[in-house]
Design a protein that fits this description.
Glucose Oxidase, domain 1, two-stranded antiparallel ribbon, 15 strands
């Protein structure tokens, strides 16, 4: 068995449009952090701490070190993640939308198919005809619950501003094509499933095309599905004959959740 990591990291060094910060408390610093947390709970603990009193000294611990601690301040849409109904809107299929912790887990461990759409350019969309053509090239037919991964190669731009502007979007006809065949989850190696912001906004501001604004995401209000964003290493997968695991982190009442997505090759 071979496991291929299909997930991008949550990286505070990479260019992002949303703020991200990772506070890293080292083993040495952890001794002070421990004392501060313990003493803050006592009525006069803060004053005693500031006066230099310590409950646990560094000499009390092996190697004068405590445990490391990392505190991540990060939107759920940074790093590889799954989006679900609540992200798309308050209702899906005329019912209250479901949040990411409600994604059925049986959807998240299934046979998978990779479709090569690397010929698509920024500002273009991947439509039903593109999926049909890609499937024909590999002589593959989709079955219910298959996880379909759309390979564009855009993950190579991760860490730069180009990652947010150089990738194709997914057309609603492609979403219909997948859902009509029983697919519940599809994934992309791009920042999002809609075209880059600059193309959508240009059409909206110059031509008044409201339909240009996040059509793939808003389509989740009409039909229920989940999708994976920010995949990587899709070029290392075969076209089919492998499984994908994409279990979402269980975060209460969010429209998206981080996931460590992997491909399993037997």
């Amino acid at each position: 068995m071979k496991i291929i990591d299909l997930s991008l990291p949550i990286d505070d060094r990479a260019y992002e449009v949303h703020d991200i910060a990772i506070e890293r408390v080292s083993h040495k610093e952890g001794v002070e952090k421990l004392n501060k947390v313990l003493m803050d709970k006592a009525p006069d603990g803060k004053q005693r701490y500031l006066a230099g009193e310590r409950i646990i000294r560094k000499e009390d611990l092996p190697d004068e070190e405590f445990l490391s601690l990392e505190i991540v301040h990060c939107p759920v849409h940074i790093g590889t993640h799954l989006d679900y109904s609540y992200h798309y809107g308050s209702k899906s299929q005329a019912r209250p939308s479901k949040t990411a912790e409600q994604i059925p887990l049986e959807w998240c461990y299934q046979d998978a198919v990779r479709l090569d759409l690397s010929g698509k350019k920024a500002a273009q969309v991947i439509g039903a005809a593109d999926l049909e053509e890609a499937l024909g090239k590999i002589n593959c037919h989709l079955k219910p619950l298959d996880i379909v991964l759309l390979y564009t190669g855009a993950d190579k731009f991760f860490g730069s501003q180009e990652y947010f502007s150089n990738y194709p979007g997914v057309d609603t006809t492609a979403i219909d094509y997948l859902l009509d065949r029983g697919v519940k989850i599809f994934g992309v190696d791009t920042m999002g499933i809609d075209r880059p912001y600059k193309f959508m906004m240009k059409e909206f501001l110059q031509e008044g095309k409201t339909s240009s604004l996040w059509p793939a995401h808003f389509y989740g209000r009409k039909r229920e599905f989940a999708h994976i964003e920010r995949l990587t290493n899709l070029d290392k997968l075969p076209d089919f004959g492998f499984k994908v695991i994409c279990l979402p982190i269980r975060i209460r009442q969010t429209g998206a959740a981080w996931a460590r997505v992997v491909g399993i090759l037997e």
